[in-house]
Amino acid sequence: MDVIRILFAIILPPLGVFLQVGLGLHFWLNILLTILGYVPGIIHAIWVVVKK
Question: How many domains does the chain have?
């Protein structure tokens, strides 16, 4: 399941974070990072998925 989350984190970062933690702080932070720049959103999403 982690492989699927990592793929979602690369393709659509907020979805990968949502699948891992739900509608929490990390989800909204990832949306903000993705809006500010796609790469920071990917980095944060992968970090969240791998960390937990």
Answer: 1
